[in-house]
Amino acid sequence: MPKNQRPEIAYLVQNILPLMAAQYGFPAPEDEERVKINEIPVRIGSGTKKPDTVYYHNGVPVFLIEAKKEGKSEEEAVDQALSYIRGFPVKKYSKDGVKPRFFAVTIGKRVACYAHQFKIEGDNLKDWSEKLEAPLHFSDLLVACGLAVAEKKKILSPETFCKEVINELTAVYKLGERITPEVVKNASEQILAFLEYGRDFTGHRPYLDLEKHKDRQAATRRLYDKIDWQASLGSDIARTFRSYILRAFQGTLNQYLTEQSVIAFMANLVGGIGPKTRVIDFECGSGGFLAAAIEQGAALENILGVDIDELPYTIAKTYLALYFKKTGKAEIDALPIRRDNGLLYCGKDWDLVIGNPAGSDEYKHGNEIEIGKHLNFNLNKKGKKKEKGGKFSEYNFSVQQALASAKVGGQICLVLPEGFFSNSQDDFLRKFTAKHCRVLAIVSLPRGVFKKGVSTLRHVGGAQVASMKMSILFAEKVREVDAADPIGNDDFSSLGYPVFLASAEEPESKSGPVCDWIEPRLAAVLEQWKEWRQAQHLKPATAKIKTRDRAKRKKPTIAPLPGPEGKTGKRAVSERGRVQSKTETKISKGLQDIFE
Known about the structure:
Elements: H1 7-24, E1 35-37, E2 42-44, E3 47-49, E4 53-57, E5 60-68, H2 74-86, H3 90-93, E6 102-107, E7 110-121, E8 124-131, H4 138-144, H5 158-173, H6 181-197, H7 214-225, H8 229-232, H9 235-252, H10 260-270, E9 279-281, H11 288-296, E10 303-307, H12 310-323, H13 329-333, E11 337-339, E12 350-355, H14 368-371, H15 394-405, E13 406-417, H16 427-436, E14 437-444, E15 470-477, E16 500-503, H17 514-535, H18 589-594
Parallel strand pairs: 5-6, 9-10, 9-12, 10-11, 12-13, 14-16
Antiparallel strand pairs: 1-4, 2-3, 4-5, 6-7, 7-8, 13-15, 14-15
């Protein structure tokens, strides 16, 4: 024990450390092998300082104490303790290369204990200190650090799954400054490896990729060992995982990810999904639409998700494994998620085709010969788009694939650029859709519903920076595709039956989570849709919508356009009257033009 101790160190040694030993089972201060007092040099800035006390177990640092005089700031003491943990010299002073994860600060006689935690903010991983209600007993501390086996392993709640698994794995695989797609993929793959291989996960990647980072491997092993994985799995854990992915996609992954409230709205718009309903999303992304179908009652054996990219494939498979409590290689391999080109043949007998298909004007994934066996290269009568180097339109293919995959009598519910409904260059797609489907509903969404990065492609090519205007198409397939005459002469403008049209008005402000302002608008549309389905007319919309973050501000209502008078249905909209409400919602010009 060093001589010439500071007064606070002397008080710590004479009073606090004996108390920790007597009441909480910590090693006694005389145990110089396990209690290091003012001995460990930590580089902070341009200098070196030493934490007041560091407790060890079998050569691994597990607990740190920072002592201050009476009257000093606890907040400053916490900040100093965190700086010691961040800069802890693991190469020389930690057998497994692991830093302490728990610490205490003492202000005079007062002792406050903390856990060093991580949380995700945007595309950054922040560390923070969480105050504990009381000091951990040393035996419980060793269990929490993965250095001892608990009598009963921990069963995770959604909150602890986020804090102790997702955040921890993100910290393990985050080697740079920001959360990257590679970090998200590795964290997802590691969860999947836990479930697929059990204790043998150490023989598989991405754990093997940490070969140069022994401390991170040790952290991963301890994380696995302290959790009862089988008892923790279920739908709540799966939803928490998807919520994490949603934040990661919006922060760094430069891809569109459909907002959960939009997905739920589309599933409710379809309705009637049951165990026997066969559902496909041929560009499934993170699996959000499949999740909604499952929530509605679809059976696992009757769904299929396909994605060509490794990241969404991994995420979707991990989601389903968590949701359906699947463990072991055989069960994980059997999950209905396929890494493949979704435009290749997937059958044509699906009850529901749902999703947010690719909007790129340039197809780049190959297999054109195979695709050409069931999709039409010359649907627009123009062949290849020469200005794109002879590439075909992925957007064109996606619409065709959706219609080809549904059975006659099956339903199609897609998020599409609003230009699909009004742009002159998409006239052939409208005709193709109108010939083979009965259009049930079109719902226009406000701008800003889809978060993305700067590299996302627009429907008309190039990097998408501004928010796109998107709409939801809901239709029923009424006939098989006629290869000899795939378009015919029909168009939306000549539909001889009523169609439900709605437009969710732009909010006054879009700050805060998207769900706060879009969810109430979609709820109002859904209520009107249900009324429309039952009685073929709409209720007056008179109530104001209040969003959770701005309840005091005057809010607009959503007013879908009225349906036809009676049931003759010569035209979807015979008059352009509006439902009376305190604030009017104007239908978008593009949607109006369809019926004029």
